[in-house]
Design a protein that fits this description.
- The chain has one domain.
- Helix content is 18%, strand content 35%.
- It is built from four helices and eleven strands.
- The protein has helices spanning 20-27, 30-36, 81-91, 161-170; strands at residues 2-4, 10-16, 39-41, 59-66, 69-74, 94-101, 109-116, 119-129, 132-138, 178-180, 188-192.
- The chain has a nine-stranded antiparallel sheet, sandwiched between helices. A two-stranded antiparallel sheet has the order 1-10.
- A hairpin with a 2-residue loop joins strand 4 (59-66) and strand 5.
- The longest helix has 11 residues, at 81-91.
Length: 196
């Protein structure tokens, strides 16, 4: 299965500076699984449903090796941001969280976050809030950021899907605009049923 990021209207992923095995060890720890009522498994084949939802049941997160770290894709519209922060804090690692959308989505939102050991170090985003566009940035710009883009007159052009793809390529998190899931050596699935 290959994900063509350029062709998707909405795509969220996170990248961790840790191996799948390190993340699996943490997710299988008693503290995490008991507190969060989750199941961890290692499927042979990754089958992903990209119907992002606000409150899916069950919540699913898939982890796989990607360019020296681990990528996480979920079925939650926010990319399971709380899980992302929890892992970076527990393992004292850096992580990048990307939200990429086109103007064709109901509420366009393009965002990049850098989390260091659970703490937000840098965020930059553009979103459509009703009829107006909002631009926001906090933290020191990172070495690869094209800060001149943030000065464009039209806010919606300041942080685009294309710019964020370029950032991912600069970081070598994304080597191509397609992610080939079939080449991964290991998959990890986290499932959390939502209780009523």
């Amino acid at each position: 299965m290959t994900i063509d990021i350029e062709q998707t209207n909405f795509f969220v992923f996170s990248w961790f500076g840790a191996s799948v095995d390190q993340i699996e060890t943490y997710l299988r720890s008693d503290d995490f699984t008991k507190t969060n009522n989750v199941t961890v498994s290692c499927p042979k084949v990754l089958k992903i449903n990209f119907l992002f939802q606000y409150n899916p049941n069950p919540k699913l997160a898939y982890f796989f090796p990607l360019n020296g770290g681990t990528c996480m894709i979920t079925n939650l519209q926010d990319g399971w941001n709380t899980l992302f922060r929890n892992i970076t804090e527990a393992l004292s690692i850096d992580g990048y969280h990307f939200v990429l959308s086109s103007e064709l989505t109901k509420t366009p939102y393009n965002c990049m976050q850098l989390i260091r050991s659970g703490t937000l170090e840098r965020v930059v985003y553009v979103m459509k809030d009703g009829k107006r566009w909002v631009f926001y940035g906090n933290g020191m710009p990172l070495w690869f950021e094209e800060t001149d883009a943030y000065k464009k007159r039209l806010k919606k052009e300041r942080v685009t899907k294309e710019l964020l793809l370029k950032y991912g390529m600069e970081l070598k998190i994304i080597l191509h605009k397609k992610i080939n899931l079939e080449t991964a050596t290991k998959y990890l699935q986290l499932s959390s049923a939502v209780s009523n």
